[in-house]
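Newbie here. two chains, one complex. Structure please?
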Amino acid sequence: MDPVCSAEPRAARIELFRDVARQQLPRLYRIARRIVGDEAEDAVQDCLLKAYQHVDQLRERSAASAWLVRILVNCCRDRLRGRARSQEDVDLDAMEDFSLYRTIAYEDPFPYSDSLHLDFLAEFSVDDVRQVLLRLPELYRIPVVLVYMQGFLAREVAEMLDTPLGTVLARLHRGRKAFEQQMWRYATEHGLLREGAR
Amino acid sequence: MISCAEAVRQLWEYIDDVVDVGERAAIETHLARCRRCCGELEFARELRRTLTDAADEDVPDDVLRRLRHTLEELER
């Protein structure tokens, strides 16, 4: 544990905040891009201002990075609250029973392929995958981004979101299911299921 | 032995190593006897990798410059 600034003046905390934020800016931007898309820069700006306003909460250098991500996620959620929910059109009932693996095997989109499932994934560019992710409901998208893309542990995400671990694990489970379902939908809607589509 | 549905439901948790010892043993017993679920496991690993690979992204220079500027302006 690194005792930083509980007894130090505000100026020292601000310097610490600035130092950690400077290092973390690319990461904060990438997280925001995956959660709010084109509003990422604005979300990070919101985060910096809010963190600065609440800099007295910053206690330890080792916790500073998670503290910033927590503030960023809340800023992203604030921005998402104002949006229409059209892109979150996920059928929760059908989701639980959905298996992308089985759907690909059953539908057999590439009849001449000897590695059907890998060929399906190969049709997706990195940008396609990011678009699929943005279709997930915010509730599921945030833990998926933090755990599978940013490498946080579910326990850390639970602390960050102030949510019980069991709830985070359940949202991760649903998030994965929603991701599988949306991968298939995206592929059908964007013509990725034709041999030689790209 | 657990069913295919039960095994598949826990595959990502198995990959992430967040199942308990008993669940891990049950899944591994199932996988040793079920070729289809082994296929599901490999696909889940690839899908997870696809997701992770989409995380990295170059931050545009102008964006980074504006964010750094905001940071420097705070209480100057």
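Moderator note: Chain A touches chain B through 41 residues (CB under 8 Å). The mean pLDDT of chain A is 88. Thread marked as resolved.
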